[in-house]
Amino acid sequence: MVDTVLKNLALPTLLAGLKSALDLTEDYVYLKDNQGRYLYVNQKVQILFGRSEEQIIGLDDSHFFDLAQARALMDNDRLVLDAGQDLECEEKNVVKATGETRYYWSVKKPLRDAQQQIIGLYGVSTDITDQKTAKPTLQDRESQLDAIIEHSFSALSLKTIEGRYVLANPLMHRLHGFSDGSVCGKTDHELLPAHLANRLREHDLRVLNSLTCTSVEEQFFVKDQPRHYESHVFPVLDASGNPRFIGRISIDITERKQNEIQSRAYVQQMEESMRSALQAVANMVEARDPYTAGHERRVGILASDIAREMGWPEKKCQDLELIGLVHDIGKIAVPIEILSKPGKLTPLEYDLVKLHVDKGHQILKEMAFSLPIAQIVLQHHERLDGSGYPYGLIGAEILPEAKVLAVADVVESMASHRPYRPALGLTLASREISAQRGRLYDEAVVDAFLRLLGRADYRFPVD
After folding, report:
1. Are residues 127 and 153 both part of a single domain?
2. CATH number of the domain residue 405 falls in
3. In three state form, how does the secondary structure of the chain look?
4. N or C: which end of the chain has fewer CB within 10 A?
């Protein structure tokens, strides 16, 4: 039936249908005569050359490709035209129209007449450029990964979920003293001391249970010398999200840890020197004002106790105690007869006393400290409602440390003896602070002080 249909079709109609079909293919289809000149090209070839079929017919490849590529193509064509053999090969083309390099897999066969004489060739070329320039093959990637693992500056390993090694790079061997070839298939308990193996397995199980990465600091002995490592342990999941392996990356941080230890020792030494210096200054202030001897020290202790009750970091509490030692350092500039005057101060004398906060600020402003020591000393007589001095700051304008120091200063002053009055005691001091809570003194600070005072185990600082 098919033969009947074909016989009934006019040849031009049949050829037109065939050409339409070839124009739909993604391959490059062409016919050439025995001189290598194009007799037919499908639409893909026309698009590649940037010309119509009429502009291509009768021309050879030298009109469309660079000379070197055209010569190679024409040599391939001669193998088909002269020897009459089929040819399958990869061809590289630089198209003149675009200057783009493309790669093709070409199949070329001789075209014969009725007497089997070669009168040309027909060919089909498939663009394989994307495959040629695609990402490295799996084998290439494995080789690259092996090189990274081999030369990594981190100790790398991979274990099954049962804890058996399937991979360990040279640095991991050196870290644990493994010999080459002795790791794969074994567990930590077969390779390491029990205490170390137990610790590593504990980290593995933590990762398997959480399915998240965990980071831990560890100490190992390499050639009998302690080394510090930061280890990142992580699960390797399969396509279903189930753990298949346990990965481990250990980075040597020994030098960093040593630097941290040295830095902490240096900071501690500096803080001890700072404390000694501040204590010496406080002693000098107290020497000029024997009636307030111990006041600065007690204010510092009480301020740090209040801050601790408020949940401040311990380091900050300790620093606040140091600031308390020198909060009245500016009194060095106040005449001693005013400081020790037994009666009530005149307005002018009181104004001179108030200058001590500004003088303290001037003395301390160049001192490098973890807290703004000069500003805290400057503000410890400020009050929430703006009635304090020297600037009449309000609420949030006052530093939190200054608010704590203010309560500690007032309580200690009222509870202790002064030249112009006897000690008023803690009960009266507590009432005063409570009465002015939220107006003169910070509510959180007052509440912390009252909680502190209400504790049966708390002892108010005394000499």
Report:
1. no
2. 1.10.3210.10
3. CHHHHHHHCCHHHHHHHHHHHHHHCCCEEEEEECCCCEEEECHHHHHHHCCCHHHHCCCCHHHCECHHHHHHHHHHHHHHHHHCCCEEEEEEEEECCCCCEEEEEEEEEEEECCCCCEEEEEEEEEECHHHHCCCCCHHHHHHHHHHHHHHCCCEEEEEECCCCEEEECHHHHHHHCCCCCCCCCCCHHHHCCHHHHHHHHHHHHHHHHHCCCEEEEEEEEECCEEEEEEEEEEEEECCCCCEEEEEEEEEECHHHHHHHHHHHHHHHHHHHHHHHHHHHHHHHHHHHCHHHCCHHHHHHHHHHHHHHHCCCCHHHHHHHHHHHHCCCHHHHHCCHHHHCCCCCCCHHHHHHHHCHHHHHHHHHCCCCCCCCHHHHHHHCCCCCECCCCCCCCEHHHCCHHHHHHHHHHHHHHHHCCECCECCCCHHHHHHHHHHCECCCECHHHHHHHHHHHHCCCCCCCCC
4. N
Q: HSE (CB half, 13 Å, CA atoms) of 234?
A: 8
Q: Which residue in this structure is represented by tokens 């009252």?
A: 450
Q: How confident is the model over 153-188, as pLDDT tens digits?
A: 788 888 999 999 988 888 787 777 776 667 888 898
Domain of residue 227 covers 147-252
Whole-prediction pTM: 0.48
Q: How far apart are CA 443 and CA 436, in angstroms?
A: 9
What is the Cα–Cα distance from 5 to 181, expressed in whole angstroms? 74
Inside any domain, residue 462? no
242 vs 157, 214, 458, CA distance in Å? Answer: 19, 17, 55
CATH code for the domain in which residue 48 is found: 3.30.450.20
Contact 105, 128 (CB under 8 A): yes
Query: What are the tens digits of pLDDT across the range 244-254?
Result: 999 988 888 88
In a domain, 333, yes or no: yes
Domain co-membership, 225 together with 340: no
Give the CA-trace dihedral at 281, 283, 287, 293, to 10 degrees: 130
Claim to verify: residue 24 and residue 74 sit in the same structural domain: yes
Task: Determine contact, residues 191/176, Cβ cutoff 8 Å.
Answer: yes
Q: How confident is the model at residue 19 (pLDDT cuts 50, 70, 90)?
A: confident
**Residue 307 CB: number of other CB atoms within 10 A?**
25
> In whole angstroms, what separates CA 135 from the centre of its chain?
29
- pLDDT class for 191, splitting at 50, 70, 90? confident
Out of 80, 105, 132, a domain closes at 132
> Tokens 């000694």 map to which residue?
276
